[in-house]
Amino acid sequence: MRKSIATVSLSGSLTEKLTAAARAGFDGVEIFENDLLASPLSPEEIRARCADLGLTIDLYQPLRDVEAMPEEEFVRGLRRAERKFDVMRRLGTHTLLVCSNVSPHAVDDDALAAEQLSRLAGLAQESGMRIAYEALAWGRHVSTYDHAWRIVERAAHPALGVCLDSFHILSRGSDPKGTADIPGEKIFFLQLADAPLMAMDVLQWSRHYRCFPGQGGLDVPSLVRHAVNAGYRGPLSLEVFNDVFRQADAGSTAVDALRSLIALEESADISPLPAPAAPTGVAFAEIAAVDPLPVTTLLAALGFRRTGRHTGEPVDLWAQGDARILVNHGTGTRGDGPSLTAIGLETPDPHSAARRAESLLAPVLPRRRGGDDVPLDAVAAPDGTELFFCATRRPGHPDWTADFMAAADLTAASDERRDPSPAGSLTGVDHLALTQPWHHFDEAVLFHRAVLGLRPHESVDLADPYGLFRSRAMTGARGTPRLVLNLAPGPAPGTRTRAQHIALTTDDITAAARRVRAAGAELLKIPANYYDDLDARYEFAPGTLDAYRELGILYDRDEHGGEFHHCYTATVGRVFFEIVQRTGGYRGYGAANAPVRLAAQRR
């Protein structure tokens, strides 16, 4: 289906918005009246600009407070409409959005509303235009789509139809199933937006918190499916009022917007995509460091061994159990020190995963390879993290580890693997926590959900000493991999950006912490007040709490008795490590301890 976007959904001048929409790949736009009024371009120049960009103008909006009014007020409304029809003619568009009345002068009289909308539609028809009537969720007398349809049906004018807006319908809890009863030819327009589920005034919810389909909690695919089944064949058009989008770069927002519609078509059974090849685990995490010594010193203290060096690039492979860390000392920014720049995702079918990612507009990363390098498909996440689709040591697939030759200390590492693992060894990657730029958080949720096939969990707000810390976990169908997307209030002191972290698993948190500290690594110091509170809330085996207090180990327990034990290293550049032990089926991330940890890191 054709895809359109309202100019109000993007930041910048009208010219910038049109350029961004065209470059992203949209077919058309809705012109929001305020964007036109603020533009130095005439309607004819805007029309020409759209034509040059390959965009159609699918809708002009809005005309407000016109129907069910006292006659004198209605006549003034017709005069306004005539002026708008003239502007539309100059723009080259034919559909005008009319919102249900919110004026205190509006009369609660469906017959009057139908009669006046019929007169308005007659005026529109004389100008070659048509009217799409939309029920605002906060309309004074008309606030539901089925009520709006009854009035349109009663008016019985060929130039009058309805506009179905997913936010106005779903925010009120209306059942979209009834849209299938509206003849397709009378659904003149379909406006789409999602939103997080919030308990607040619907007008404020609409004006500030709408987002693109797939980023919130509304069942937008169901509405689209019913409308298309009813016979709607117009564009899928986004109308999103969002404070963050209004400040973010219009180009990246437009790409994210189009991605949401492509994914929506799949969810609504309109247009298939390459099937998801959802990742099943983490193959590696890559840290870039101009000076690798601080991070390799920390890795050694954590028990990692350098087991390989890339045959053609300055990249070392460090491993322990099933956890693998690549240290790339050919890239990085010296000012901020080591940073997490790439993730290898274990994928059932890397090529299919790459095809799906490309179909959902994920930037495919060119890779400089030597003649013998293993081919790896990779895309960029919204925050710039490189994501590689891997099939580690699986027959029939290229194996990225083949690019690494044995390092000088490989023999020692092999000897260690032949012996039983010492107490407190690290066994794998539990999760990766990625701090997102403030304007990419919702985009990142949609990207990881649609492109990678990960399942988003509920968003959690955490208290940071200098603001609110927002966090949302994304997991595979079987619980792994675990990626945690964070939105932090600001960078850590002395840096330009917030740190990312790698969480590693162990079967014995106390032994792991003692082993790491004995090797010379610094663990995050946790205040004594925290342990006094733990002692009041939980009962521990003798000596356990004293050990936790000594080592800086945090603790959480869920309602089912699952337990989470975890501690943190000091931050090196933009990276720190977490050591975790899960018992009893605990599935969370220790959110209750986040304020304590964040405050300790700030200190």
Features:
alpha/beta, eight-stranded parallel β-barrel, single chain, 32% helix, elongated, nine-stranded mixed β-sheet, 18 helices, 603 residues
Describe the model:
- About 30% of the residues lie in helices and about 25% in strands.
- With about 600 residues, the chain is of the alpha/beta class.
- The strands form three sheets. Strands 17, 18, 19, 20, 21, 22, 23, 24 and 25 form a nine-stranded mixed beta sheet that branches. An eight-stranded parallel barrel has the order 1-2-3-4-5-6-7-8, surrounded by seven helices. It has an eight-stranded mixed beta sheet with strand order 14-15-13-9-12-11-10-16.
- Helix 1 runs parallel beside helix 3, helix 1 packs across helix 10 and helix 4 runs parallel beside helix 5.
How many runs of DSSP E, i.e. beta strands? 25
Report mean pLDDT, rounded to a whole number: 93
Can you summarize the main beta sheet?
9 strands, mixed
Distance N to C terminus: 53 Å
**Helix percentage range:** 25-40%
The 3D shape can be described as elongated
- Which class of secondary structure composition applies to the elements? alpha/beta
Q: What fraction strand?
A: 15-25%
Radius of gyration: 28 Å
| Unreliable residue runs | 411-418
In brief, what are we looking at here?
This protein is an alpha/beta fold.
Helices, strands, pairings?
Elements: E1 3-6, H1 14-24, E2 28-32, H2 33-37, H3 43-53, E3 56-63, H4 71-91, E4 95-99, H5 110-126, E5 130-134, H6 145-155, E6 160-165, H7 166-170, E7 187-192, H8 202-209, H9 220-230, E8 236-238, H10 250-267, E9 281-288, H11 293-301, E10 305-310, E11 315-320, E12 323-328, E13 339-346, H12 350-359, E14 377-380, E15 386-390, E16 404-406, H13 410-418, E17 426-435, H14 441-450, E18 455-456, E19 460-464, E20 467-475, E21 482-487, E22 500-506, H15 509-518, H16 528-537, H17 544-551, E23 554-557, E24 563-568, E25 575-583, H18 594-602
Parallel strand pairs: 1-2, 1-8, 2-3, 3-4, 4-5, 5-6, 6-7, 7-8, 9-12, 13-15, 17-21, 22-25
Antiparallel strand pairs: 9-13, 10-11, 10-16, 11-12, 14-15, 17-22, 18-20, 19-20, 20-21, 23-24, 24-25
